[in-house]
From TrEMBL, chains A, B:
<dbReference type="InterPro" id="IPR006668">
    <property type="entry name" value="Mg_transptr_MgtE_intracell_dom"/>
</dbReference>
<dbReference type="Pfam" id="PF03448">
    <property type="entry name" value="MgtE_N"/>
</dbReference>
<dbReference type="InterPro" id="IPR038076">
    <property type="entry name" value="MgtE_N_sf"/>
</dbReference>
<keyword id="KW-1133">Transmembrane helix</keyword>
<feature type="transmembrane region" description="Helical">
    <location>
        <begin position="318"/>
        <end position="339"/>
    </location>
</feature>
<keyword id="KW-1003">Cell membrane</keyword>
<keyword id="KW-0460">Magnesium</keyword>
<protein>
    <recommendedName>
        <fullName>Magnesium transporter MgtE</fullName>
    </recommendedName>
</protein>
<dbReference type="GO" id="GO:0046872">
    <property type="term" value="F:metal ion binding"/>
</dbReference>
<dbReference type="InterPro" id="IPR046342">
    <property type="entry name" value="CBS_dom_sf"/>
</dbReference>
<feature type="transmembrane region" description="Helical">
    <location>
        <begin position="386"/>
        <end position="412"/>
    </location>
</feature>
<dbReference type="InterPro" id="IPR000644">
    <property type="entry name" value="CBS_dom"/>
</dbReference>
<keyword id="KW-0813">Transport</keyword>
<comment type="similarity">
    <text>Belongs to the SLC41A transporter family.</text>
</comment>
<dbReference type="InterPro" id="IPR006669">
    <property type="entry name" value="MgtE_transporter"/>
</dbReference>
<feature type="transmembrane region" description="Helical">
    <location>
        <begin position="360"/>
        <end position="380"/>
    </location>
</feature>
<feature type="domain" description="CBS">
    <location>
        <begin position="204"/>
        <end position="260"/>
    </location>
</feature>
Length: 449, 449
């Protein structure tokens, strides 16, 4: 199980592909897990990868395709015929198959679906494609184990054997009534302990968590996490059981959400990776840098407006980067705590209380930092005036930065806007400008200029 | 299932607790899910919460206790007797029980364990407490369904009924040999389809992923995610099956890891929440702010060294915050991409190639930003000299910042240090200083001072 992809191994594979030695490749790779095959494919160029996909069994390659980076998958799929793509999809659960089909253009989608032999599978995939993205309908799979209230335990086990053929893992056994409406679930334990002739209606648990096809992904993730569910059934508008969502799909979603917040905080529009093209990375990064440039130009303009002060007290200028940096740091800290708290749904109480707490916190930190700075400037320049004006400014700037950093995400959240956008460049830039403005005003005041 | 905690409901509960109306409270809350009870407890003060914990059935309250914030749980546990705590633990899976016990002081731990009636349960908890934190041993639970190779299907089903009593969910059926060593797993499907007299040795799957008690949590999470596992068996040094880890424990771990990176990037030492005390928050935030202060003082000292330049070309000073901010932004972007890539294990290839790519990217972004800045300064001040020197500096600073932002996390990672520490204040501060230094040198060069 300790699979390690060595450069030697990759070289061997590449050589075998160059020799078109299909037999040796099949032998070499037959014991490999699809996730390991996927890791291997990522190291090959798209022609080599395509060759392997065509060569190996769809049972392995279909799952490996799912694991690939979207770009590579797209390049491989372009080299496959609709029939070949259909063969891969045939092996996948409906939710995964629908995800792959959704990446194809409309014409190819139709062609591929026509080539899927299992008609029920094809119909299921088409159904999934019709749901809105970001809803439970688009996230669910059609594969599940479903028994009727009216069945006996013996009949139920018989039917489960049949259904289990299509289901990779039996998470839960869902119980429905005559009209197919979800009425409860059956515990495996109860099924194993009941006598063969017992009716399901006598032993099933009539309480079951569920979501509808229109439930938002975020809400699905929240419910599954809160109630520690490993699978949740999905019903349509009429309460009819139509699919189920498993925890592994939610794990990916949770991870992506956490990463998105992090990327936003770093000034990167979501969904880029280290291996993306320079153009894609530029598109994700440049807009935020422009915002930063704008802020810097704004700061320069503000400082330009204090020309007299600066000409006669040039020392003040030496500390503008410090003030700006501290305003930015404090703002990012405050906003990150709020953004994370909001994401985890544990920011409670009024905005007013939050702001008072942040103000006290900032005052405490600010006092410590300002004191240190005061003694430093005093030691360096030997004048109390400058030390006092700069460190008092720092103190005020830190408090204001903390308040802005707390208020903006809370405000955005109230307005229904993703507060994560407030961390990072946005808050740094606005705090830079506010910081410098406050700094110069206070210095002017204290120095009596 | 759409549980909403209203202030009215909380007020009702508080009133009933004040009246010590245990009967009404039990009636009102008996249908509630433990996760909802936990949400309610979070809204009460610790005396009220303790009252409810003592009042309601341990079956519900034990699980609710697990969901609580650590601080609140600690305050509640302080008000419970060892016997009462033992009653709660009796209802929990061993992994959760061990987590709670680990939070108690040594003396209370002993007392509580003595009061646990189920001796096997107590012994299991003690075993779990002995494993190192952050290893599979400390993460696993002892509850699992285990069958012997030598059994028949009929015997297996009989035995499973017995074992299933203690297992909340049957994830996988693990197969062991005479010595208890893990030899494979059994699919429920195969069990359902095989005849009663079939030997397990004929139908079990001899291939199974596993980890040892010493495997690092991070590695467990990586394996479970990579291979899409919902549970993984844990073996000891001799290959004997001793426990299993389920995906819900890993979900929490994955989430915490992603949040930790985010907090580090924001300059917050891990593990604080919006609701923590001001002292705890200060401890997490102040050290990073001191680092920023140090950086700012360094920047001031550097600028002080260019006094002549600055006296005669004061306009240069107006743009130092811009230069520092841009260096910081670019550095944070580059490092965030690398840190996230390393966390997801998809940063491959040599450091050299990464640096070249980042350099090209930074050059592209830098050229665009520098051009805009040039025209802005030209328009504002009407001189080409300043515009040229400031924007050329910006271009160079952006490239250097990108390289530093890429190199530092890669370097730390190679050294076995968590690269997340490199994002945020650390990289911003060093980039501020480098940026300003480069800026002033280049300006001096171009202006020929």
């Amino acid at each position: 199980m300790q699979f390690q992809l060595t450069t030697d191994f990759i070289a061997t594979i590449e050589q075998l592909i160059a020799n078109k030695d299909g037999h040796a490749l099949r032998e070499l790779l037959k014991e490999y897990h699809f996730a390991d095959v996927a890791e291997l494919l990522e190291e090959l160029n798209s022609d080599e990868a395509t060759y392997l996909i065509k060569l190996l069994k769809s049972k392995i390659t279909s799952e490996a395709l799912m694991e690939l980076d979207e770009d590579l998958r797209e390049r491989i799929l372009e080299n496959l015929t609709p029939t070949e793509i259909a063969q891969e999809l045939e092996e996948l659960d409906t939710d995964d198959a629908a995800d792959i089909i959704a990446e194809l253009d409309d014409k190819t989608q139709k062609e591929v679906i026509d080539k899927i032999i299992d008609e029920e599978h094809a119909a299921d995939i088409v159904e999934l494609l019709n749901y809105d993205e970001d809803t439970a309908g688009a996230l669910m799979a059609k594969e599940l184990v479903q028994v009727k209230e009216t069945w006996t335990v013996a009949g139920c086990v018989r039917e489960m054997r049949r259904q289990a053929e299509n289901v990779t893992r039996v998470h839960s056994i869902y119980v429905t009534n005559r009209e197919g409406k979800l009425t409860g679930r059956l515990s495996l334990k109860d099924l194993l302990t009941a006598s063969e002739k017992t009716k399901i209606s006598e032993i099933f648990i009539p309480k079951v968590d569920y979501v509808t096809v229109h439930t938002d992904n975020e809400e699905v993730a929240r419910i599954m996490q809160k109630y520690d569910l490993e699978a949740i059934p999905v019903v349509d508008e009429n309460g009819v059981l139509v699919g189920r969502i498993t925890i592994d799909d939610i794990v990916d979603f949770i991870k992506e959400e956490a990463e998105k917040d992090y990327q936003m905080a770093a000034g990167i529009s979501q969904d880029v990776e280290a291996d993306d093209s320079i153009i894609a990375l530029t598109r994700a990064r440049l807009p935020w840098l422009f915002l930063g440039l704008l802020g810097g130009v704004g700061a320069a303009a503000i400082m330009g407006g204090f020309e007299e002060v600066l000409n006669n007290h040039a020392i003040l200028l030496l500390f503008t980067p410090l003030i700006a940096a501290m305003a930015g740091n404090v703002g990012v800290q405050s906003s990150a705590i709020i953004v994370q708290g909001l994401a985890n749904d544990d920011v409670k109480g009024s905005i007013g209380n939050r702001l008072i707490k942040e103000m006290l916190l900032a005052a405490l930190n600010g006092a410590a930092l300002a004191t240190v700075l005061f003694f430093f400037i005093w030691g360096w320049k030997g004048t109390i005036d400058y030390g006092l004006s700069i460190s008092v400014s720092l103190f005020v700037v830190i408090i204001v930065a903390g308040i802005i950093g707390t208020f903006i995400p809370l405000f955005l959240h109230k307005r229904g806007i993703d507060p994560a956008i407030a961390t990072g460049p946005f808050i740094t830039t606005s705090n830079d400008i506010f910081g410098i403005l406050i700094y110069l005003y206070i210095a002017k005041l204290i120095l009596g200029i």
